[in-house]
Amino acid sequence: MFLRIEHKILSTALAAIAVILLLSTFYIDFENGKIEAFQSWLNTNYGWLTILLPNIFFIFLIGLYFSKSSSIRIGGENASPEFSFITWISMLFSAGLGIGLVYYGVAEPILHYSNPPPWDNEAYQEIDGSNQAMIFTLLHWGLHGWVIYACMALMLAYFHFNLNKPLRMSSLLVGVLPKSKLLFNAIDVFTLIAISFGIATSLGLGALQITSGIANYTADIEPSLLLTLLVILFVTVIGFISTVTGLNKGIKILSQVNISLSLILWLFILIAGPTIFLLKETLENALSYVRFLPEAALWIEGKDSNNWQIGWTIFYYSWWISWAPFVGMFIARISFGRTIKEFILAVVLIPTFMVILWFSVFGNAALFFETSYGEIAKIISDDPALSLFVLLEGYPFYTLTGLLSLFIIVIFFVTSSDSGAFIAATISSKPALDEIKLPPSKSLRALWSFLFGIVAAILLYIGGLQALQISVVMAAFPIGLLMILGLVNFIKKLN
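The structure corresponding to this sequence follows.
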């Protein structure tokens, strides 16, 4: 059995996405700077709110973890987990980070090293440049990103499994906003739009990296838009096959395979590289991250600055927020049977620990090459998508590790599309509250899977990476406000 399609929400969302894409293609000029100027104005005037939101969620989750409510079990006292602990972690980690982990694992530390954050903290200025770069890399990918996902996912899981509400963002706002079916349908439609463009951003990044990897791996192929579009088509077809197999087969198996392969690649970089240096720097990075976290997390760049924070911290937090409806619903869906305390530990602390290990090893391996030979930074600055492959070329067995990396990126690509399609199909289906685990139809999941590929391809065609980034920032602001309203309602329900 499957959920029945909610035709009004589906047709409205598809029409809205089509209109946005048509306007972007024929009426918006990404080259004239007007869209970028609006984005800059939004970030300059409201960027402080984007910085503030993760800190609010962070404080809330700490308080909740040590409260009596932390013993509440998602789904009720007798609920038992659907997935094993390792499988659960693998699935939420693959959905939550995906392609970004591979795309920025090498690139971001190098880019921060080349263009350091203009933070005038005296203690921070006294440490070496490599450690400075890693502190802000971990700030962008560590606790403050995962608390956004955890907060959204926990609210959705509690409302769905404990309060018997539909698994969608609009459920969080019942009792906060006026009772209006039209209003709540509009929120669901907006959520679908945000999911589509948020996932398209990651798929676009993944396609760019696969294209660069293929061109770097084979001398006869040059990177081009056509090759990138063909990559999107190829991986979208694979995603379709995975999508129709469901949670217990497609996403579950791919997530486990990807975590295993990523671990193999991580161990290879650690063992084949300057092992003692990497272990030492990993520990130093972790300690420095914890040391500077309270101040770095609250730092807001002045208006007379060079807008470094807009291009990095605000963009990243916007990215996490724009992905929160999709990842939150997915994590909520697979977290049945977990206690709130267990949930916070698994969704915030364990992924952050994994992020520290991944970025510290890959980032410091690249920084070691840069500080020793000075060969990587310029290449990565010109084309960040090449970063991982440039690093691997400095190691033995590039023929094997290059192929392995391409395979990992493809699987991350598929799992992002797969899990996103499952959630988008759930939102565009009629809820069946008597069957809270009933999945959406395979045809609807396939439709959304193909749609994500189409959106990514069009955005790359009309504006490249800039169009992808702008779509993320635009979606984040209203989602952040809805999350605050949902949090207030969640606290009321817990009390």
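The two ends are 36 Å apart (CA to CA).
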